[in-house]
Amino acid sequence: MNIGFIDSGVGGLSILKDSLKLLKSYTLPSYRYVYFADFAFLPYGNKSQNILLHRLHTISDYLIKQHDISCIVIACNTATCETIDQLRKQFNIHFIGVEPAIKPACLDSQPTKVYNLATTNTIKSKRYQELKTKHAKQHSIKDIACDQFVHIIENNIIGSQLTKTLNDTLSIVLQESKNTNPTIPYHIVLGCTHFPFLENQIHSFLKQRINNSIKFFHPGNAIANRIQFITTAYTETLPKKTDKVIDKITDIKRINADNCILSTLQCDISFLHSVGSNSAQATLEKQSKDMFLQPINEAYYIKQYLNLSNDLFWTAINI
Question: Phi and psi (nearest 5°) for 217?
């Protein structure tokens, strides 16, 4: 079965990671993954619904026709909120959306501080507001717009600039902690698929400044389980795994017995990125050689975060 992932950048790799982990947990049929990073329209978080509807339709149509995709994961909270209902009407395949993990963050019946870190458009969306109303129950959820985190992650920014960004963005958490009982746990919802890349940094930053326990929530495992549920229904009709490697696809290799995702299991996977004339990304083509061939930014996240071999590469698509 061919499964597509769409995001504006590397954020959806956090969802892909949990999906790859699933291959170790279940005896599943052959998979081919196609990850599409829409760098030409990065970021999605500040785009209008009309732009996102047109863009996601274009990419979905491309993946279905050119890569025989039968299930697409919209690996972006904003894009899910703004487009998934229409995409399900327009295409006769499965679409899986990503939403902030509000429900599990609010399951605790005891007093809990719940913060949702997300993009401005996700927070403002009707879909998210309905989600919050449905699952918040007795909890008061504080939404924090963290659009700048996407830039931090896409450019692999660390050091003092990252610390300053965390301090500016999470100041409300620090301020409220002064009047919060230290026994009350903090539940932090990572409401953008980019944000799990900063989970360790956010945890370290907060633990140095507040005494409360901290737990993070993001939907990666839930999405992986949904993929498993959908694809299992097709087990008997899927072709058997072959040794043939499709053009521009590379096998995932085992690199470390202690921390690799797939161990000896292999699957086909490709990474595509868009190159277009979008004014916000006018310099992308000129920079693409340095951006994708050096072990930084996107290549860095594939190797370090996914624990995949360093011979994986991106293929430029002009759509």
Answer: -135, 130
In which residue are the tokens 């009350």 written?
Answer: 184
Q: How far, in Å, CA of 147 to CA of 119, rounded?
A: 5
Residue 186's contacts (CB-CB under 8 Å, 6 or more residues apart) are 112, 113, 115, 173, 206, 210, 212, 213, 214, 215
Q: Which of 201, 178, 179 is nearest to 190 (CA)?
A: 201
Known catalytic residue at 146: no
Residue 300 burial (CB count, 10 A): 14
CATH code that applies to domain 2-98+220-317: 3.40.50.1860
From the list 71, 81, 192, 260, the catalytic residue is 192
Q: Phi first, then psi: what are they for 313, rounded to 5°? A: -145, 165
* Residue 260: active-site member: no
DSSP label of 278: -
Note the CATH architecture for domain 102-217: 3-Layer(aba) Sandwich (3.40)
Q: How far apart are CA 147 and CA 144, in angstroms?
A: 9
Helical axes 77-90 vs 49-67, angle rounded to 10°: 60
Q: Classify each residue of 101-128 as buried b or exposed e, where b means 16 or more C-beta atoms within 10 Å of its C-beta.
A: bbbbbbeeeeebbbbbbbbebbbebebb
Domain 2-98+220-317 and domain 102-217 have a common topology: yes
The model carries a pTM of 0.82
pLDDT per position as a tens digit, 33-82: 899 999 889 899 999 999 999 999 999 999 999 999 999 999 999 999 99
| Set 76, 81, 106, 260: catalytic member | 76
